[in-house]
Structures are given as C-alpha cells and as structure tokens.
C-alpha cells in the first residue's frame, strides 16, 4: 500500500487549475497552426491567427486565455494499492480549486443553488469522478469546462433501429445548432451506448484524449475522421464567421448498452480546450 | 482586410454605416453586463422603475471578466454567449440601446428588434479574452457589485476588434458566411 497525503493532491490541483488557464496544450497550438494552412476563408484565417496570438499573450503574461475559466472537472484514476492520508480526497481537490482559482485571479463561475444563483465565491465545488484501477498510483486529469460550449451539448435516447445513420444525423445536427455559440473551431466529444448518464460521461471523457490522437480501435478511428470532415463541410468556420475549419477533432467513445437502447451524447468543447494531468 | 473605425456612442447614422460582415474597430465607452444583470434591469422595467444606467446610444458588451491582477486594468475579458440575453434585449433596445457585443446566434425577436430600433449586433472573438483585455483602457464598476463578474461595469475600449453580425437592414452574417463555405449534402 502506498500513501499519498492530501496536501500533495491539493498542491498539484492548484498548479493544474492555473496552468490550464494560461498554457494552452501543444496539441491545440499544432491544430491551430495546421488549420491555418488549410482554412479557405480570409476571416477564418484571421480568427485562427488571433487565437494563436491570444494563446501567446496568455502564456507569457499569465492571463487566462478565456475569461470563462470554467467549472473544474476531475477524472481520477485511483490505484487499488494507494491510500489517501491526512484527509478526504474530495476536500483536497476542492481546496486546490479554491486556492488555484483565487490566487490565480481566475473567474469564480459557480453558483451554489441553480435557482437562487448565488456565487460560491471560490469556484467550488468541483465535479469529481473517481474510478478504481490496478496499481498504486493516483492519476488526476483535469478539465476547465467553459459554459458556452457546454451549453450546446445534447443527449438523445435513440432507437436501436436508428443505427449509425441516426447517430451521425444527431451529431451533425448538434454541431450545426452549436455553431458560433460554441466558440468554434470546436472539438466534438461523442458518447455512444452505456445508459442515459454513462453516454454523457464517456462523451466528456473522450475529450481528454489529445487533439489529433485517434481512437485505438480502427472502426471508431475512421468514424472520427469521417465525421470531422463532415463537420468541416458545414461552412460554420472559426467563430461561425464562415470557413472550412469548424471542428479541430471529433472524439468518440462507445460502451455496451441495453438491447432496447441507443443513448448518444454530444459534449461540445470550445477551442479553449484546457486539459492538464498529473500522476502521483 | 479592410476595417471600419467607429467611435461610441452610436447614432442612427453610425449604425446605418455598418453592414453584416464588416470588420470594425470600436473605440469609446461600453457597459459590461450579462445574465443576472439583465434579469435585474428587466425587473425594474417591468415595474416602470428608472434604470441605474442610461441606455440612449449605448452599447452593452456581454462579458464577465476574470479579476484583475495587481497593476492590471482588467483581467481576461472575452465575449460570452449572447443568446442567453435574448429574452431581455428587445426591451433594452426599445429604451435606446443601440448595440451589443457578444458571440453567437440571436433569436428572431432580437433580430427584428435590431431592425425596428435601428441597432447593431457585433461579435468579438470568443475565447480570446487575453488579447481583448489589451484593448480595454479603463474599467469601473457602476452598479451591482454584489454580482461579482456579472456587475455592470463601464469599460473604455480602444480599437476593439469586432465583426458586424446583424445589421439594421436585416442581414445575418452567420447565415451568409456559412452558406458560402457549405459543401455537399450534409
């Protein structure tokens, strides 16, 4: 059994929250640069250029690349052979978020009550999922999920007879409806199967995979490519200003499901695609 | 790419000079306001109370900035999704508001009101809050400080880059632009 103290978790969470807001991942920078070469519209090229400039300013001056520094979402993989000491895992994460967002001058975007809408003032609570895995390590994956793109996400309980065609129609319809609202170029996370809530979970989780990295299963990987190409034929373009770069990637995850069911969830991610991870 | 320069506040003439798809550099003062702020303004309108801000010729920027670091004028300050303010916008336009800066679609009621009241809807680049913060020269909280990032702020912007999406002639740049690049059967 390996001990991991809660203070170590908190410290790492503080650093991840801040770094996510200031340092856009290399996968995203590469994706901007390569779409700048293929983008047909002048206004679209201009948007992509400004997004690269924006990322540079954010990194150099430690200013959030986007003012919506998001809801803090954590996907934790906890080894069966590791033990958290000194406190509670969820508390440790929330403390890290509170400190990370506060000290980093990040925006507090969480309201305590969805009806009264009073801000909690420290961007907590975080949304934390824990999965148990083999080993003695604790892997913490973090995403700062902005509201604009998240609001354009959708879920539908399709019929098995709707098949692949029905799924594709739903995905494309979702991208079209999201349009400029989701701050394109976007990344489209698709969860197929599981149950009502599982499909949403795997759709969001699929977005953790770096942009440009295909699904390990050939069949899913080719679907990702095909749908990405279809997204880019919608004409929406960077920021919805028209163009050939609507999606930088499509990510798909699948999960076994009930004989009567075909749940499909589409979780849209804006170009401020903030992911950080650490393994303790 | 050609850009138009416009000084705020807006007038009928300035609005009529702007066409969907125009790249514009805006300079002058705008109000920052978003969801809960709009709800509060609307509640006052409903009971015929005076608003805490004058809207004649004004532009509202839909933004909830991050807190400024010491020595900074404002934190990251990009546009938020405008559609969430659609419910309140026609009433504000009827009280003299001339323009909005945000990002994303407006509904049919707002587009109609933009034509009726001779106004304009601009989009700034969503998610470019670090870059846009450099175009803001002054910030002060006017009212509703308790709302944190949603408080009404007075911002002085300089050469702030936007694109005209909905003009006073009924054009919609999002629709027009997508049609140009749309390919094949979808």
From TrEMBL, chain A:
Its Gene Ontology molecular function terms? 4 iron, 4 sulfur cluster binding; lyase activity; metal ion binding
InterPro entries under this entry? Class-I_Fumarase/Tartrate_DH (IPR051208), Fe-S_hydro-lyase_TtdA-typ_cat (IPR004646)
Query: Which residue intervals define the domain Fe-S hydro-lyase tartrate dehydratase alpha-type catalytic in the entry?
Result: 11-278
One matching Pfam family: Fumerase
Keyword flag Ligase: no
Instruction: Report keywords, A-Z.
Output: 4Fe-4S, Iron, Iron-sulfur, Lyase, Metal-binding
- Which N-terminal residues, if any, form the signal peptide? none
Report which superkingdom the organism of origin falls in.
Answer: Bacteria
**What stretch or stretches form a coiled coil here?**
none
What's this protein's family per the entry? Belongs to the class-I fumarase family.
Could you identify this protein by its name? Fumarate hydratase
UniProtKB/TrEMBL annotation, chain B:
Superkingdom of source = Bacteria
Q: Which residues form the Fe-S hydro-lyase tartrate dehydratase beta-type catalytic domain?
A: 4-176
Which SUPFAM superfamilies does the record cross-reference, listed alphabetically? Answer: FumA C-terminal domain-like (SSF117457)
Q: Which UniProt keywords apply?
A: Lyase
One of the entry's Gene Ontology molecular-function terms is: hydro-lyase activity
Give a single Pfam family match: Fumerase_C
User: Which PANTHER family has this protein been placed in?
Assistant: L(+)-TARTRATE DEHYDRATASE SUBUNIT BETA, L(+)-TARTRATE DEHYDRATASE SUBUNIT BETA-RELATED
> What family does the Swiss-Prot or TrEMBL record give for this protein?
Belongs to the class-I fumarase family.
Check the record and name the NCBIfam families matching this protein: PRK06842.1 (NF005310), ttdB_fumA_fumB (TIGR00723)
Q: What is this protein called?
A: Fe-S-containing hydro-lyase
Native organism taxonomy: Bacteria, Bacillati, Bacillota, Bacilli, Bacillales
């Amino acid at each position: 059994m390996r001990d991991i103290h809660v203070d170590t978790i908190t410290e790492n969470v503080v650093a991840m929250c801040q770094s996510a807001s200031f340092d856009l991942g290399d996968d995203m920078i590469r994706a901007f640069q390569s779409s700048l070469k293929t983008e047909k519209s002048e206004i679209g090229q201009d948007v992509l250029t400004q997004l690269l400039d924006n990322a540079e300013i954010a990194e150099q001056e430690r200013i959030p690349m986007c003012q919506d520094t998001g809801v803090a979402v954590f996907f934790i993989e906890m080894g069966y052979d590791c033990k958290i000491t000194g406190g509670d895992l969820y508390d440790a994460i929330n403390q890290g978020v509170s400190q990370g967002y506060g000290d980093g001058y990040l925006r507090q975007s969480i309201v305590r009550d969805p009806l009264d809408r009073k801000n909690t003032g420290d961007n907590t609570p975080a949304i934390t999922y824990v999965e148990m895995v083999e080993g003695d390590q604790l892997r913490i994956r973090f995403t700062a999920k902005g509201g604009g793109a998240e609001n354009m996400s959708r879920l539908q309980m399709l019929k098995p007879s709707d098949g692949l065609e029905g799924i594709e129609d739903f995905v494309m319809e979702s991208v079209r409806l999201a349009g400029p609202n989701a701050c394109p170029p976007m990344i489209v996370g698709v969860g197929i199967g599981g149950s009502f809530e599982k499909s949403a979970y795997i759709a969001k989780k699929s977005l953790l995979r770096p942009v440009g990295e295909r699904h390990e299963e050939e069949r899913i990987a080719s679907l990702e490519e095909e749908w990405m190409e279809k997204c880019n034929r919608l004409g929406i373009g960077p920021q919805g200003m028209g163009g050939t770069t609507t999606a930088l990637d499509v990510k798909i995850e699948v999960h076994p499901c009930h004989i009567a069911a075909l749940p499909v969830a589409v979780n849209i991610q804006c170009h401020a695609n903030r992911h950080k991870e650490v393994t303790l | 790419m050609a850009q138009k320069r416009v000084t705020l506040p807006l007038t009928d003439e300035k609005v009529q000079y702007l066409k969907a798809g125009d790249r514009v550099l805006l300079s002058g003062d705008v109000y920052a306001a978003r969801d809960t702020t709009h709800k509060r303004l609307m509640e006052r309108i409903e009971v015929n109370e005076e608003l805490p801000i004058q809207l004649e010729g004004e532009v509202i920027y839909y933004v909830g900035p991050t807190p400024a670091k010491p020595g900074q004028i404002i934190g990251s300050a990009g546009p938020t999704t405008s559609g969430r303010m659609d419910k309140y916008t026609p009433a504000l336009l009827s009280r003299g508001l001339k323009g909005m800066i945000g990002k994303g679609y407006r509904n049919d009621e707002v587009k109609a009101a933009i034509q009726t009241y001779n106004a304009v809807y601009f989009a700034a680049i969503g998610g470019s809050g670090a870059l846009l913060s450099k175009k803001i020269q002054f910030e002060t909280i006017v009212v509703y400080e308790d709302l944190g990032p949603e408080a009404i702020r007075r911002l002085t912007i300089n050469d702030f880059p936007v694109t005209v999406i909905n003009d006073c002639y009924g054009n919609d740049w999002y629709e027009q632009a997508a049609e140009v690049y749309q390919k094949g059967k979808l």
